[in-house]
Model the fold of this input.
Amino acid sequence: MTADTTPHSAPQTGPQTALILQASVRRDASVSRPLVARAAEALRDRGLRLTDRDLTAPALPYVDDAWTAANFTPAEQRTDAQRQALALSDALVAEVQAADRLVIGLPVYNFAPPAPLKSWIDHVARAGVTFRYTENGAEGLLKNKRALLVMASGGTPAGSEIDYASTYLRHMLGFLGITDVTLAAADRVLFEQDEALARARDAIDAWTADAALAA
Done:
């Protein structure tokens, strides 16, 4: 893909920032949403500044021909219409660039991530901005960040050969440079709900316990 000249975010000073992503299309009946909220509350209590993004309200648009044409056009050559086509993507990228930590809700739909989360990946995976190709292969540009995947599944065991959700997210985050990824899985809740929720809560509490206090 064509290299982009969009400037990268400068290092942040002061309180750390956490990006909180909700992706479940369900509300009151969601398993992942309360778990993500638990992580967010713990990080807020530790003094982190939170950026909340619900990927379902409003739903992220899918990338289309206009988006792709704009993305393949060098930044300095884009028309006003092309810059507008990438405006939401630019905002989503900026949120990730500014974040020290990411908490990503990952409900499993048909063994895979839900469409809103896949759309988010499509918007933030941009050559020259969040990754680049070098003579040694691809290099992720979103480095020095930590991510928590809050997975919820009805019957899919986390990390199993039919788990195309957490394995895909781990791969994509690593491709973008985010290699410190922890999984908090409330998996197989149709069969062992209490145990699954307890495991996920324990993993969330452990991951948030060492969050840096505000400077």
Q: What stands out?
A: The domain at 19-209 is CATH 3.40.50.360 (Rossmann fold).
